[in-house]
Amino acid sequence: MNNRKNTEVERMSLAEKAYLPEIARGLGLTLRRLFRPKMTRQYPEERWQPLGSYRGRPVLVKDSDGERCVACGLCARVCPALAIEVQAGETDKTKERYPAKFEINMLRCIYCGFCEEACPEEAIVMSPNYVFTTRSRNKAILDKEALLTPAEELKERLEFLKQFKNQ
Amino acid sequence: MDSFLYILALAGIKLGIVFTLVLLAAAALVYLERRIAGIIQDRLGPNRTGPFGLLQPFADVTKLLMKEDIVPEAANKKIHGIAPIITLGVAFVVYAVIPFGDYILINGEKIYMGLATAPDINIGILFILAMTSVGIYGITLAGWSSNNKYSLIGGLRSAAQMVSYEIAMGLALVGVVMLTGSFGLSDIVRHQDGWLWNIFTQPLGFIIFLTASFAEMNRTPFDLPEADAELVGGYNTEYSGMKFGMFFLAEYANMATSSAIIALVYLGGWTLPVPAETLGLEDGSVLLGLAQFVTFIVKIFAMTIFIIWVRWSIPRFRYDQLMHLGWKILLPLGLINLVLTAVGIKIFA
Partner of A54 for a Cys bridge, out of A50, B114, B306, B345, CB 3.0 to 4.6 A? Predict the structure, then answer.
């Protein structure tokens, strides 16, 4: 004879079938939650600090002697969302080329980080910044002024790139 | 004519008080529910609107009032409009017989602390049972008039659910009525004075009544008419704006009502934890009335917190499981409780 207990109901003990003790157990479980630390982060006051591996808003690196970018256009070329527009200009300095115009359309950017990978000068990197909402679409198109960021602020990301880029 | 105006004025004042109290209680319960749900799920819950997020329910209602009221084209528009009114109206009407305390003596005149126009009404329990049954019409009509399959299933479930738990609920109450010898809620409360709460004398009846109350309030584990996971939102799928808000408020008002009934019938109602004489409060004084009122409110809130706690702990019953529980378990248990009570009365009294 096949006496196997096939359904959940058949496998339950009498105490479990009576239901009330199990309800009490369940209530005890939720009561214990009362004393556990809460997961909530109080966002505007308490902000998360991203690690070096985080890909936030792409920015242009500014060293002590000015911008690194040489306006080669590789980032604009590789960008799958066509978010970057570069126009080159020329100077008499040793580093002859500079971007006369550099725009990133943040409405198009998908944070893939290809621009950063393609860049031969490590001039465009993904910053840890993730707070950049705007009230109008025009303001979401960032020009060179808005993109240039001192290298000190991007230290972690630059360290990360030194360690892992092109491996 | 003068006495008629007097009665009218008194009823008006009481009506105003109870209306405000119930709406405030509903607001407080919405806040409590969201906060407790948050805590149980390792979150904080609403804490931004006003101090500690206390203004959250008012923000919710303001939002609902400003929303567009959409009525489905194929709906039965009259009934679609009446259904939420029935549901919310019934939630308020029940307070007509709920005593918030014993009487107060003013100029040698007994004023009962309740809305009842017929003071100290002696069929309180019957009235409550009748009215809460009418409340189901609101939900069933809402489901039917929406002309939506999910709403209809929700409404039908609500009707079937009512049939299967109300008998057990009534049977549980009969035990209490046998002990007290009266249908009046004030008599039932006075009978429990001095820690002789019915929860101790009628533990089985209490469990049956509590289970049935959850079904009556349409709250988890018996929120089958709503069942967001399977029926989208059940009977209120096609409701929006303040019509939905009325169902929403009615749910919380019902919760307060059910807690009040449980507190009155099983938890000693407004009887003080210590005899009034030890506190030095005179029979019929305003202070004693106030103390009774506060005791009652504390009991109601303790009960509602328990109900919210259960909602966030226990999953929803299946439809057939509810039927099984109502007809095959609660009904026989109710009968057993009845027999036990009868035997107990015969032996001890």
Answer: A50
